[in-house]
Design brief:
This protein is an alpha/beta fold. The protein has helices at 2-5, 14-25, 31-43, 51-57, 102-109, 114-127, 149-164, 171-178, 199-208, 222-227, 234-246, 264-276, 297-303, 312-325, 353-363, 371-374, 460-474, 489-493, and strands at 69-74, 134-140, 184-192, 212-218, 250-255, 284-287, 331-334, 386-394, 397-405, 410-419, 432-440, 479-482, 498-500, 503-507. Helix 3 (31-43) runs antiparallel to helix 4, helix 6 packs parallel to helix 7 and helix 12 packs parallel to helix 14 (312-325).
Amino acid sequence: MLYRDSTKITPLSLEKLKRSWAKDIGHLPKHSELLSVYQKLIEQKKLSPTPLLENIFRTRRGRTLSGVSPMAVMTKPYSCPGNCIYCPQEEGMPKSYLSDEPAAQRAKMNDFDPSKQIKSRLQQLKRTGHPTTKVELIVIGGSFSSYPKKYKTSFFKDMFDTLNGQPSKNLKQAQEKNETADNRVVAISIETRPDLITPKEIILMRSLGVTKIQLGVQAFDDKILKQANRGHGLKEVAQATRLLRDAGFKICYHLMPNLPGSTPQHDIDMAKIMYQDKRFKPDYLKIYPTQVIPGTVLHRLWEKGKYQTYSEKDIKFVLKEIKKITPPWTRIDRLVRDISKQWVSSGTEKSNLRQVIQKELQAEGFFCQCIRCREVKNLIEKELPSFKRRSYPTLGGKEIFLTWETDKYLYSILRLRLPEKDNPLFPELKDCAIVREVHTYGKSLALSQRQEGKTQHQGMGRQLMSKAEEIALKEGYPHLAVISAIGTRDYYRQLGYRLEGEYMVKLLQS
């Protein structure tokens, strides 16, 4: 039936065709079923690959509209050095995670085995029509830096081996195989605490292939951090940020409005410190408004009337004001944590709060400037993007943010760091400017695939790299280094870079 009616399928006609097919097969076919049949017809060479049909049948399209296929992989339960008053500890789960969160469900079902988790995710993405040639690994589950080195190394080797489809002798060999594998790792992030970031830990994380660090900062007020029993202050946040930035990492902060001791206005004032103080200025941000979870110290304070959460009106006010002051070089990954209602005694229960706030801001005539809100996704614009350069000071160096964009949409970005002095951690970074990120947005395509009107594989990233090389040389840096993910090393080799230690490095010619 699909073969017979393939030329008739359009976004408007599909539902009518599905109803006619249901009369023959006895049920209304799902998009995933149609995609599976379509893929078999391609294999049998009865149909030619048709981007229109692939796009129509693809489910949960937003998963890969940022240019990569994300895979969250959870580590096993392990002790955390923190004793934060808000943090839940469910038996059999890593600290701060609950078993009915989507990624946690998959992890628990697979016994926290990284290989099983990735296999499950690969099958799910392929079944729903998403390419997996460019994979972003998101390692979650407590404070990663507190886990034993042996476990971390084994965990990462298993992830690479699974994506490679074959075992390796050690992690280094697994990484080398992934440079040319079908499922290449183009980014890896881990979660940890600012006070666990040390030079030794950074060297280990680079050897694992990590390119992005999520730091649990929570608040920009030492008194509030102390009241929450966080175990560190802003001094540690600044030190960690400086070390990570000088090593080329992308940095994501976790922020918690409505902690004990704060107010809606103070939360907004702390966000201003985060964005304006040169010690901080994150590349990415996740905002988790405080929720009261049974079994926590905060829950006991709430029961005694010593703490109360904001009203929905106040929460929305805080989040909207933070979005209004977010600079164009920061991406707000999340605005609320996806915790089911059964766990929340007090605090927001709306998992779709981001969409609610977006609609209200648009009704007020405001368009958020954060990266996520401006990503081009699968849109096609008549206006051609133009090159823009922005710069801002940070502790230990200057950041240059290069983009291809229009007034509305963001097509491609590059983060260039100009450090103040030689980096003591990695000798390969001596006399180097550092590219911390290159990312082209839009629907993720296979590595060799190009589509007319799509942003992927159109040379935007290469053009930004050329601009970065010009800037670095003009600013007096004889070399440019890239904190390349394992699966993107081959891309940089084509641009004249070579692997030195853990970085791709190029000698710049005047």
